[in-house]
Amino acid sequence: MTDQPKVAYQGQPGAYSHLACVAAAPDHEPMPCYSFEDMLSAVQDGTADLAMVPVENSVAGRVADIHHLLPESGLFIIGEHFQRVNHMLLGLKGATLAGLKEVHAHPQGLAQCRKLIQQYGLKRMQHADNAGAARDVAEWNDPSIAAIASSLAAEVYGLEILADSVEDFEHNTTRFLVMSRAPKLPPVTTDKVVTTIVFRVRSVPAALYKALGGFATNGINLTKLESYLVGGSFEAAQFYVDAEGHPDERNMALALEELKFFCPPDAVRILGTYPMSPFRASAPRPEGD
To answer: Where are the domains of the chain?
Structure first.
């Protein structure tokens, strides 16, 4: 144990979340956790100071379940980080591509390497995380079994890189949210910020259209809008929005006021306002929201 602040992540040492911790929070000690729930709990109870939370991948899309956990966690988003995902096919030393029969990885890792898996006719085996798959392959000592994981995982578990850069697309990148127990509101003078909001609308015709209209009329760009079912029914949906702007700026304040008008009481929550990542600010984007 050390006095160094800790950043919790889901997965085993060598996971891409581990790499994200090193890149985005170099002054924090990375702390591996078995599940997303364990990762968030570590921050809730003070065992860790930050959580590195993967929310979406440029190839495989949204990370399953995480959007259900964030609003209920009581934590706040204080930053974002985009981590390049460079997948390696790892096996025992001396193993060959021709001798492989199955490959182990997180479902996202398997989804991001479909072409290679199909090319070699490998059986897909799901794991809780990629680095854990690499650890298990090392322990099983079977040359017919491989894992998809990072080069760091190869070093940690003593595996050989049988093929590098095996992801289907070179732009493969995962977006992470950095979360803490307390909000960290940047100054209004900060150049570019993102505000993440979750909300539910009233059950009236065109409620979502009208609720989002305030962002359009006030010139607020929405970079993300997703919905997911809540309450165990097919009728109640919660919406997740990333908006460019600070809630203390007049145009954002007016947009939020109009949003709340079309939502039930206490149905609008700001999960955090944080500086926009330089990666996102410099990346080209299509016209419109």
So the answer is: 6-85+173-180, 88-164, 193-282
pTM of the model: 0.85
- Which pLDDT belongs to residue 191? 87
Instruction: Tell me the three state secondary structure of residue 232.
Output: coil
What is 193-282's CATH superfamily?
A: ACT domain (3.30.70.260)
* pLDDT at residue 1, rounded to an integer: 52
Low-confidence ranges of the chain (pLDDT < 70): 1-2, 231-236, 281-289
Cβ neighbourhood burial of 93 (10 Å; 0-12, 13-18, 19+): exposed
CATH number (3.40.50.20, 3.30.1360.120, 3.40.50.2300, 3.40.190.10) of 6-85+173-180 reads 3.40.190.10
Q: Does residue 176 have an active-site annotation?
A: yes
* Catalytic entry in 36, 76, 174, 215: 174
Specify the amino acid at residue 110: L
**What's the CATH number for 88-164?**
3.40.190.10
The string of DSSP letters for 151-196 reads HHHHHHHT-EEEEE--SS-TT-EEEEEEEESS--PPPTT-SSEEEE
Selecting among 36, 76, 176, 262, the annotated active-site residue is 176
* Tens-place pLDDT, residues 164-211: 999 998 888 999 999 999 999 999 988 899 999 999 987 778 888 999
Encoding tokens for residue 141? 């000592």
